[in-house]
């Protein structure tokens, strides 16, 4: 076989030499004078064969960097202190996709409400400070009447600027906002209502059910147009995501759907509990785990989930919780994971068991035998291992009495333990 010159092109049709070896071009290869530089040539648009027709439909467009409009990164949330360079502590870039992720019960939804309140009142430090904007809140797990609206009140949001999004479809009575089907409609609505933030709680719940959310390529086909629409219509996306129940200690690898999000995420904020070494209950920490457009070495923050009472017009008060941002933290979410913190679902079971155990012992006078506690815990749906962890967390004291088969342990709340045996 004749050795082909990869840089040679035919004078008649512009194709490379190897394209002529099977006779499909209808003529012999005639080297173009001047070597291999591929430049437009007369008659290219009428060249024979299917290749030219495809060129008319699909073509490459080369744009020199000199014609690219450069833009400065602007930040929706910017925590830059006064003595630092401007915008050096930007956390959530505008008109991009930010993921807020963590295990169950760490306040992700309360954080989303906290952001909504600050965007609608113009109090979020960043580009929109002093410029209130609307928020679209797309939620699939929490009730608007019982949870989201009262939480917005507790956070101080302007309720006139927070919008629930519904979809009216004459062909389907019970439909919902779906990606990528409703992306163009979403973009138009965002522009019409001056939306600065779209909250998707959780993000993956908006994906069309026909899309396999285990296949990253399919999920990206739904999310890439959403990100492009956010940039076009000038709003930012805060997508909530859950940590997987199993995985390594890297928070990014624990985000459900992380493979699909890929490079679409410009910022990732992760949340975790921090066990108090003094035994006074868990605290919380939030860390910036990804920041493609800014610094990643920014400090983490402590935060609390505080109880709050909201007056409901014409009804009884509602008892809820709200996100309260605290000072800079001395630890990070990743450090908590690397230090061997128990999985989130196990910590939740422990907290639930501790709350139950403290209440149970208080109701029976501060002390009860271990067998009775085990039976009551089983009725309450708590595992024996969770109750044992709760005992350690609450510093329950134990005293054994009797002999042989009559031997039994009694658990005491710390304040109820008999002083003479301490």
Describe it for me?
The protein is an alpha/beta fold and 422 residues long. It is 28% helix and 22% strand. The protein has helices spanning 50-57, 108-121, 144-155, 183-192, 216-233, 251-254, 258-261, 333-338, 344-363, 370-379, 384-394; strands at 75-78, 90-93, 97-102, 134-139, 162-164, 195-201, 236-242, 265-275, 282-291, 301-310, 318-328, 367-369, 397-401, 408-412. The strands form 3 sheets. Strands 5-4-6-7-3-8-9-10-11 form a 9-stranded mixed sheet. Helix 2 (108-121) crosses helix 3. The longest helix has 20 residues, at 344-363. It starts with 49 loop residues before the first helix and ends in a 10-residue tail after the last strand.
What topology emerges from the helices and strands here?
Elements: H1 50-57, E1 75-78, E2 90-93, E3 97-102, H2 108-121, E4 134-139, H3 144-155, E5 162-164, H4 183-192, E6 195-201, H5 216-233, E7 236-242, H6 251-254, H7 258-261, E8 265-275, E9 282-291, E10 301-310, E11 318-328, H8 333-338, H9 344-363, E12 367-369, H10 370-379, H11 384-394, E13 397-401, E14 408-412
Parallel strand pairs: 3-7, 3-8, 4-5, 4-6, 6-7
Antiparallel strand pairs: 1-2, 8-9, 9-10, 10-11, 12-14, 13-14
Helix pairs in contact: 2-3, 4-5, 9-11
């Amino acid at each position: 076989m004749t050795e082909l010159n990869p840089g040679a092109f035919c004078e008649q049709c512009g194709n490379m030499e190897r394209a002529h070896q099977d006779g499909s071009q209808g003529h012999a290869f005639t080297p173009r004078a001047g070597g291999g530089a591929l430049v437009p040539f007369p008659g290219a648009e009428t060249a024979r064969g299917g290749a030219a027709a495809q060129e008319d439909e699909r073509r490459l467009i080369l744009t020199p960097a000199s014609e690219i409009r450069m833009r400065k990164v602007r930040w929706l949330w910017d925590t830059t202190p006064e003595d630092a360079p401007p915008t050096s502590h930007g956390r959530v870039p505008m008109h991009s996709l930010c993921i807020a992720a963590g295990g169950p019960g760490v306040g992700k939804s309360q954080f989303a409400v906290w952001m909504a309140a600050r965007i609608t009142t113009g109090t979020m430090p960043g580009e929109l400070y002093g410029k209130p904007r609307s928020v679209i809140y797309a939620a699939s797990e929490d009730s608007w009447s019982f949870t989201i609206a009262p939480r917005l009140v507790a956070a101080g949001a302007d309720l006139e600027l927070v919008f629930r999004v519904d979809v009216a479809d004459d062909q389907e009575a019970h439909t919902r906002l779906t990606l990528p089907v409703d992306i163009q409609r979403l973009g138009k609505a965002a522009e019409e209502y001056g939306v600065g933030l779209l909250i998707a709680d959780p993000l993956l719940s908006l994906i069309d059910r026909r899309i396999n959310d285990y296949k990253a390529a399919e999920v990206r086909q739904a999310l890439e147009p959403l990100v492009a629409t956010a940039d076009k219509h000038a709003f930012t996306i805060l997508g909530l995501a859950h940590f997987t129940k199993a995985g390594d200690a890297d928070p990014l690898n624990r985000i459900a759907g992380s493979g699909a999000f890929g490079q679409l995420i410009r910022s990732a904020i992760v949340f975790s509990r921090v066990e108090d070494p003094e035994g006074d209950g868990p605290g919380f920490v939030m860390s910036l785990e990804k920041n493609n457009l800014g610094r990643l070495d920014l400090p983490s923050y402590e935060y609390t989930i505080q109880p709050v009472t909201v007056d409901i017009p014409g009804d009884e008060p509602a008892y809820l919780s709200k996100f309260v941002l605290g000072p800079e933290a001395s630890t990070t979410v990743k450090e908590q994971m690397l230090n061997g913190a128990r999985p989130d679902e196990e910590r939740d079971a422990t907290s639930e068991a501790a709350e139950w155990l403290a209440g149970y012992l208080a109701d029976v006078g501060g002390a009860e035998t271990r067998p009775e506690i085990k039976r009551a815990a089983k009725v309450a749906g708590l595992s024996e291992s969770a109750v044992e962890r709760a005992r350690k967390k609450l510093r329950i004291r134990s005293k054994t009495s009797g002999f042989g088969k009559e031997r039994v342990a009694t658990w005491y709340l710390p304040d109820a333990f008999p002083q003479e045996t301490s």
